[in-house]
Amino acid sequence: QVQLVESGGGLVQAGDSLRLSCAASGRTFNMNAMAWFRQAPGKEREFVARISWTGGHTYYVDSVKGRFTISRDNAKNTAYLQMNSLKVEDTAVYYCAAGVGDQYPFWGQGTQVTVSS
Questions:
Q1: Which residues contact 52 (CB under 8 A, 6 or more apart)?
Q2: Residue 102: how many CB atoms within 10 A of its CB?
Q3: What residues contact residue 103 under an 8 Å CB cut-off, 6+ apart?
Q4: What is the mean pLDDT of residues 16-33?
Q5: How confident is the model at residue 42 (pLDDT cuts 50, 70, 90)?
């Protein structure tokens, strides 16, 4: 099993920045990618960004390209999501996920991000 713990959420104003962290522990050799998803009130969970653990290849949903950056620190088994120029529509619970390829069997508990106008 892999345990994931997110941190860094909070309440900010539109245009501000936040950095989310996701620390992985346990059998981390079972994963080769980490991703961030989010779920806004009344909406389905959506993919935000993904990073491969070895090559560092990244992918983003179009709505965050140019504003969000996903990165990882292999030595710390931690992934980050730097969120700049935040918008009200970025308000959601953000979840970290880990797995192999596009399969994510491991999930964190989520961290709330609220962006006010």
A1: 32, 33, 58
A2: 10
A3: none
A4: 91
A5: very high
User: Which positions ≥6 away from 62 have C-beta within 8 Å?
Assistant: none
- pLDDT (0 to 100) of residue 65: 98
Q: How far apart are CA 45 and CA 7, in angstroms?
A: 19
Question: 34 and 103 in contact (C-beta within 8 Å)?
Answer: no
Contacts of 55 (CB under 8 A, 6+ apart): none
pLDDT of residue 24: 94
**Rounded distance, CA 94 to CA 115, Å?**
13
Distance CA 94, CA 111 (A): 5
Q: Are 110 and 6 in contact (CB under 8 A)?
A: yes
